[in-house]
Structure formats: C-alpha cells, structure tokens
Amino acid sequence: MIISPIQNRDFDEVLALNTASVPHVNLIPLEQLQWFVAHASFVRVARIDERLAGFLIGLRPGTGYASPNYRWFCAHYDDFAYIDRVAVAEWARRQGIAEALYAAFADSQPGVPVLTCEVNIRPSNEGSMVFHQRLGFRQVGSQETDGGKKEVALMEKAL
C-alpha cells in the first residue's frame, strides 16, 4: 500500500469512491473536493497495485469549513485533528487501509492532543463504530444533522 497526497488525476476516482460510500459519508461535488485540497491539512489517497483503495480528508481548526460536525469540535476544543471523511473501496476492506490512513494523518499533525471524527448513529454505521472503538476512540457527544434525518456520535481519541 502506498499513501500519497491527492493529485488532480485522482479526483474522478475519489469522487466515485465517495459516492459509493454514501450514506456513511455525504456526497461532495468536484468543487468541494477542490476546496478540501486547497484548505485541508491532510488529503491523501491509498493505493494498492496502483488501484485506489481509499482516501482520507482531515482538517485542523480555523478553516471556515461549514460542516456542523466540524463546527461542533471547533466550539468544544481549542486544538484537534478532525477526520472529515474516510472511504475504503469494497475490494480493499479489512486490509488495514483506514487504520493506515488514520495513523498517517495523526503522524502528520505533531503536538495535536486529539484526533476527532463522527460516526453515524442514524442511519447506523455499526461497522464504523466498532472500528473506531477498537482504535481507542470514545464518544464525547452527539448531534442531529440534516434536519433530523441523521444523528452522529462525536468521537475523540487522545494522541
């Protein structure tokens, strides 16, 4: 597996994988992916044998990102590394892709006290909850989003 910064040539594959991962992540248009590339502190892809296996987008406080989940962490923490989205291709699951991407993000943010993210409670993403708990994340809050259509567990892991 090779983890590397996203390139323009990766955009179509990343957007397709993101779309295939809904409802566990929200849809994003090309313009938002381009915004992430310009403003996020971490946008990486993981490839196995040159095939896109997964990607992760991570942010730090102060980007102006409008996500209510990101804003929750901004309101409750002075410093954090926020995982906005991670997606792993179906063929690449259970090969340590997400865990490697999380580790690469954490390693790229020296001195940050916590890694944060959210996991869907409604609609349920039980596999993601189990994954995050196994990595040492704990729930520190919850909130409804999308006009009550979704509920998320707000999670943190001390670094």
Would you write up a description of this structure?
The chain has five helices and seven strands. The chain has about 160 residues and is α+β, with helices and mostly antiparallel strands. It has a single domain, classed as Aminopeptidase, CATH 3.40.630. It has a seven-stranded mixed β-sheet, sandwiched between helices. The two termini are about 25 Å apart. The model has no long low-confidence stretch (mean pLDDT about 95).
Which structural traits does this protein have?
Aminopeptidase; alpha+beta; 7-stranded mixed β-sheet
Low-confidence stretches: none
Strand arrangement across the biggest beta sheet: 1-2-3-4-5-7-6
Q: How many E-type strands? A: 7
CATH class group = Alpha Beta
Characterize the overall form. Answer: globular
Taking all residues together, what is the mean pLDDT? Answer: 96
Please compute the radius of gyration using only Cα atoms.
Answer: 15 Å
Strand content: 25-35%
Give the helices and strands as they follow along the chain: EHHEEHEHEHEE
Class from secondary-structure proportions: alpha+beta
CATH topology tier name: Aminopeptidase
Task: Provide the fold topology.
Layout: E1 2-5, H1 11-20, H2 30-39, E2 42-48, E3 51-59, H3 68-76, E4 81-88, H4 97-107, E5 114-122, H5 126-134, E6 138-145, E7 150-158
Parallel strand pairs: 4-5
Antiparallel strand pairs: 1-2, 2-3, 3-4, 5-7, 6-7
What is the compact description of this entry?
The chain has one domain: Aminopeptidase (3-Layer(aba) Sandwich), CATH 3.40.630.
